[in-house]
Amino acid sequence: QVQLVESGGGLVQAGGSLRLSCAASGSIFRIHAMGWYRQAPGKQRELVAAITSSGTTHYADSVKGRFTISRDNAKNTVYLQMNSLKPEDTAIYYCNVERAVLVGTFHEYDYWGLGTQVTVSS
């Protein structure tokens, strides 16, 4: 199994910054991609940003130029630097691990964190 520990959420004023972290632990052999999704009240969960093991990134249009995703492959940790935050960024942010392979196995699994609340006040 893989455990995901998220940190860095909180309350910030519009225009401020936050940095989210997510560390994956367990008998991990490799992870294809790590990313962040978010879900606001009454809305569907949406992809915010993702990064592959080779460093290829993908961002939602709504966060391009404001958010930066990065990854430490040696630590199986992904970060999301969020700048110029807006009230519409308010949501629960979930860490996602895509296509993780555990040591001694060949199967790929996806995992989700429990989520961390980000609240941006106007």
SSE order and pairing:
Layout: E1 2-7, E2 10-13, E3 18-26, E4 28-39, E5 46-52, E6 57-59, E7 67-72, E8 77-82, E9 91-102, E10 108-112, E11 116-121
Parallel strand pairs: 2-11
Antiparallel strand pairs: 1-3, 3-8, 4-5, 4-9, 5-6, 7-8, 9-10, 9-11
Structure description:
- With 122 residues, this protein is an all-beta fold.
- Helix content is 0%, strand content 62%.
- Strands 2, 4, 5, 6, 9, 10 and 11 form a 7-stranded mixed beta sheet that branches. Strands 1-3-8-7 form a 4-stranded antiparallel beta sheet, with no helix packed on it.
- Strand 9 and strand 10 form a beta hairpin.
- The chain is elongated and about 50 Å long.
- The termini are far apart.
Radius of gyration equals 14 Å
Structural class computed from helices and strand pairing: mainly beta
Largest sheet: 7 strands, mixed
Q: Whole-number average pLDDT?
A: 96
Number of strands: 11
Describe the structure in brief.
This protein has 122 residues and is mainly β. It is built from no helices and eleven strands. Strands 2, 4, 5, 6, 9, 10 and 11 form a seven-stranded mixed beta sheet that branches. The protein has a four-stranded antiparallel beta sheet with strand order 1-3-8-7, with no helix packed on it.
Keywords for this entry:
122 residues; mainly beta; seven-stranded mixed beta sheet; four-stranded antiparallel beta sheet; 11 strands; 62% strand
